[in-house]
Write a structure and sequence with these properties.
Blueprint lengths: L2 H31 L9 H34 L1
């Protein structure tokens, strides 16, 4: 992989990490609004929580994949 490609991947990774952190903060705010859990959440907020959690999980998977790619590429150099 060229250094430009590596730089692009690192920048993409940083962007994904920022998105992950934003989602995590939104989820935490929503949880704290209802005492730290989903038990007392109204249906609308529970639906939003589930959507955010799904997005966060998808981003986390992409982060892990990119981390592995970056580590594999680093070991090849």
């Amino acid at each position: 992989m060229s250094s430009d490609d590596m730089l692009d991947q690192v920048q993409h990774y940083r962007s994904i990490v920022a998105t992950y952190e934003q989602l995590r903060q939104e989820i935490n705010k929503l949880l704290m609004k209802y005492g730290g859990g989903t038990e007392n959440m109204p249906a609308e907020d529970l639906q939003r929580y589930r959507k955010l959690a799904h997005e966060r999980d998808e981003i986390a998977s992409e982060m892990r994949w990119l981390e592995q790619q970056l580590l594999d590429d680093d070991n090849e150099v």
